[in-house]
Amino acid sequence: MNQLASTDGPVYLNHIGGANVPGQQARQFQATNPTTGKHWGRFVESCAADVDAAVRAASQALEGPWGQLSPTRRGRMLMAWGEKIAANAETIARLESLQNGKLLSEMTAQARVACDWLYYFGGLADKVEGRVIPLERRSVLNYTLREPLGVVGIIVPWNSPTFLTIMSCAPALAAGNTVVIKPSEVTSASAIELARLAQEAGIPPGVINVVTGARQAGEALVDHPDVAKISFTGSDGAGRAIAARAGARLASCTLELGGKSPNILFDDAAVDNAVVGILSGIFAAAGQTCIAGSRAYVHESIYDEVLDKLAARAKAIRLGDPLSPQTQMGPAATAAQLAKNESMVAKSLTAGASLLCGGKRANVPGLEGGYFFEPTIVHQLASDNPLLHEEVFGPVLAITPFSDDEQVIAMANGTRFGLAAGVWTRDFRRAHTLARRLQAGTVWINTYRALAFNSPFGGYKDSGQGRVNGMESVDQFLKTKSVWCETSEEIQDPFVIKV
Ligand code: NAD
User: Fold this and answer.
1) Residues 248 and 304 in one domain
2) CATH number of the domain that residue 476 is part of
3) Which of 198, 367, 449, 493 is the most core-located residue (most Cβ within 10 A)?
4) Active-site amino acid positions
């Protein structure tokens, strides 16, 4: 058990060195169920001393059992962890829905596929290889060793906690590092559950540690001198602050940040497929995904037809309890996110845009305290309208017509973000031209919101640095050592650099 009972729900403790550890300052914070607006549990508000204890446990595990394991054994343990997560997918998913209000069906699917991620990265653990360098001087054997960085700090947001935690942890652990996870203060429980399952799977204590808390706990992790790297997923504002702090002590960062991703619909596309892609791109998960297709650009010749179809379908989306299979859209995860949805729409309308549908809080019978917001579409936006530039992280779509390819490429690239883009067309020459010219880490052609463990994912521009998923993500958790071995005993000139 990682939790204690209290009169207002369970109390979760930190997971440090394989043990359930209370906070050193005995401070706690409450978690709220966004579907009901009611408190459901409490967590440790970790201080710098708690973070230090977790980093020390991770350092010891690195020196001890984890560092001693062969990469193959390490990989097998990651796979066993994946199996444990898959076997407990329903429990984890219920916990996720309770915390962030996302649909149980989506959270279950994410918990299940986490296993695929751990199989893939477990399999890569013993494929990390050095190289032999062909030098001019034949008597020298020069080779490289790929070594883990050390203790990695993993800071994650609330929108897909299990999935995003595994995306960062799996390559870091496959590379031989140990980790300290600081989950979002909104969704702390699933990380603790994951750490417990890791231990059940045989991963040694101290390899995966979890300290809960808000920004201050994250800052203590970023500042800790024994944390070699920060793998951060979250908003661009926090990413900037973290990169600056980490940079001050020359620690490196991977940054997976926000987006303002465009979905571009040409008049030669399969329009009904595109409409579904645009709808799911923005309204799935109530818009609370980094890859939300929050801007749609539609060719002027089909603009009115598409506008009508999108509005009709958006109005028909069933809001409700995320645990019910009938529900298509749950609540915003927090009261602050709900307020942001409202204020961003208001700002956009004040700047001259028009509302096509939605735009306000939704009343769901029986769930009056929940943070529900109507699926919203805004149109007639000037090019500097905030909805075309600022991330909402809510179910708010900004839609704009375009007349030609050059114009839409310029509009699509006209934000500081560059996480993803969708292109809907049957013309493959046009599709691949756009794929090259769009400034985004992922371009989807005739699909949207697709991810795989073996396909690199990350941002251009303000959407981030580095990549998760795919082989290159393991490289980001390794350092290279160059070893030179002179095999000849011939004496060389001591004043000449040896090459
Ligand atoms: P957030 O940036 O507010 O918080 C993310 C995490 O960072 C939390 O654990 C938080 O406690 C911590 N944190 C915040 N400020 C910090 C600081 N200065 N120092 C250390 N830690 C700090 O983000 P959020 O509201 O939880 O999540 C939503 C954001 O995450 C959106 O912008 C979304 O686009 C982004 N996101 C990106 C990806 C991606 O892969 N690119 C995936 C999911 C979400």
Assistant:
1) no
2) 3.40.605.10
3) 198
4) 256, 290
